[in-house]
Specification:
Layout: E1 5-8, H1 14-25, E2 29-34, H2 38-50, E3 54-59, H3 65-79, E4 84-87, H4 102-130, E5 134-139, H5 143-146, H6 152-172, E6 177-184, H7 197-202, H8 212-223, E7 234-237
Parallel strand pairs: 1-2, 1-4, 2-3, 4-5, 5-6, 6-7
């Protein structure tokens, strides 16, 4: 029996990489998406294969709708529809709102929020036609729930992902396709290098930053059969921040 196919976007590093590796260890066939990090993505796929799993890589820019559609439809034509998707790819461009540039606003909205449509739209009908259910997991943020100083653009995009996730969950529920959102707090990745860490730590009741594995294991659970009756939910992984 062929393993269920999972796409993880932004999987060459950080949370996406941890999700891809974790899902690979659970026996899924993982497609490791990347935009520019070809070497890093190939290393992730090779690690999955070295550990006995199945993996391949796929390149596209989540902001470029036609490019995304062409790449995904070609992948489906060659290897079959995806059972699950982890929409992880995202960026931050922090600044106080009076100093926030149009480019900073646009780039964050396009990469984080437009990607929801760009990636999922080509995948939904093939997933439905499989008639085997499915799993869609989006990545929001604590910033999308409570807001965060200097992240008006990021908070807007991540809040939008929550709304879109909840709406799509209603549409796909009767197809046995669950749609859930994971909202990490402050996770130890290169995206938090610019954060004033002492101030951030004061907001975390557990008094530690999260690890990428904390998020990956939550994603792993939501992808599993054990989570088959969980949909339209936002799961926070943030050490008690909210």
């Amino acid at each position: 029996m062929n393993p269920q196919r999972i796409l993880v976007t932004g999987a060459s590093r950080g949370i996406g990489k941890a999700c891809a590796l974790s899902l690979g260890r659970k026996g899924y066939a993982v497609t490791v998406h990347y935009r520019t990090g070809n070497t890093e993505a190939e290393a992730v796929a090779e690690q999955i294969r070295a550990e006995g799993g199945t993996a391949n890589t796929l390149q596209f820019d989540v902001c470029q709708r036609e490019q995304v559609s062409a790449a995904l439809l070609a992948e489906i034509e060659q290897n079959g529809a995806f059972y699950g998707v982890v929409c992880n790819a995202g960026i931050a461009a922090d600044n106080a709102f009076p100093a926030l540039t149009g480019e900073q606003w646009d780039s964050v909205i396009h990469t984080n929020l437009d990607a929801f449509y760009n990636v999922l739209y080509p995948l939904i009908m093939p997933m439905i036609k499989l008639r085997k259910g499915g799993r869609i997991i989006t990545l929001s943020s604590v910033s999308g729930i409570i807001g965060n100083r200097g992240q008006t653009n990021y908070s807007a995009a991540k809040a939008g992902i929550i709304g879109a996730t909840k709406a799509l969950a209603i549409e796909l529920a009767k197809r046995n396709i669950t749609v859930n959102c994971v909202a990490p707090g402050v996770i130890e990745t290169d995206m938090i290098e610019g954060i004033y860490k002492d101030e951030a730590m004061k907001m975390i009741p557990m008094q530690r930053f999260g690890k990428v594995e904390d998020v990956a294991e939550t994603v792993n659970f939501l992808m599993s059969d054990a989570a088959g009756y969980i949909t339209r939910q936002v799961i926070s992984v943030n050490g008690g921040m909210c």
